Amino acid sequence: MPQSDHRKTVFSGIQPSGLVHIGNYLGAIRNWATMLDDYDCIFCVVDLHAMTVPYEPGEMMQRIRDALLVNMAAGLDPERCTLFVQSHVPEHAELAWILGTCAPFGELARMTQFKEKSEQHRDQVNCGLFSYPVLMAADILLYKAEVVPVGEDQSQHLEFAREVCRAFNSRFGETFPEPQPYHGPVMRLLGLEGKAKMSKSLNNYIALLAEPEEISSLLQTAATDPARVRRNDPGTPQLCNIHTMHLGFSSAEDLSWCEEGCRTAGIGCLECKERLAQNMIRELTPVREKYRSYASKPDYVEDVMRRGAAVCRERAERTMEEVRRKVGIR
Ligand code: SF4
Questions:
Q1: What is the pLDDT of residues 30-74, one digit of tens each?
Q2: Which of 70, 54, 53 is nearest to 18 (CA)?
Q3: Whose CA is nearest to atom 7 of ligand 1?
Q4: Is 197 a catalytic residue?
Q5: Which fold has domain 212-290?
Q6: Disulfide engineering: 246 pairs with which of 125, 151, 250, 263, CB 3.0-4.6 Å?
Q7: pTM exceeding 0.85
């Protein structure tokens, strides 16, 4: 697990959502895994963030462990990056409070995610949900991270973190580098019905740990280009979510086979889906096996969390000593 070094520091949060699907894998985890050697990567299971919407306390520890296990199995090798749990480093909350005093209220009130989530959980709109982006700014700035991988959902929050960073530096003196967004290859996967983004809440997903039979059967019923009503109707692969999944899981050769076959009606949709299922199963089987292997070693997982927290606490404390001095409370 590398300490701070000459490489740029990357910070990213992992939601303990209780389920990881192939959209999360293609859109985030697989990209993060490619950064491990070139960056000093810190990945944090953001349990404090997860408390801003209604949840079952008895399930939270399991969700935290599971998020860690799935992400490790999907490529976040704990020996090549730092993995830890947000609440194990209390400085996140302390810095969030201090940054909150530099955060423009009007900007926070404009955050799309706050509006959406407060709409979804009308009877539980809390201050934590409102100030979620301040805590996210603290997560990043605490480690003086220079690079933050963001999907489109998080870019508004990162922009806010950059603004808070500038506000703090200008009021108290240069302290934090302004974090830059990192955009990996964009892969926006729709759900199996081919309309909305793949998500747990819409139940339109393929779980990353799905068994091969489940993958095949879910793909069989997945939506395709509606223009292909009959087997000999040509289609437009770019309008089909199965094609997007081929982009994520298939070789260049299979991709050309899908595109050519679709345009010319040389292949049927079932054939196209079967090839995709084979490729998806080939890539995800080792992930499932690794998950099981990690799950059978709870002591190792505990150790990963402990080591991660120790490294991060030390780094966080260094930052906080500087911050406390600069804001005048030491
Ligand atoms: S052939 Fe493949 S890419 Fe074309 S519409 Fe059917 S499933 Fe989609």
A1: 999 999 999 999 999 999 999 999 999 999 999 999 999 999 999
A2: 70
A3: 269
A4: yes
A5: Tyrosyl-Transfer RNA Synthetase (1.10.240)
A6: 250
A7: yes
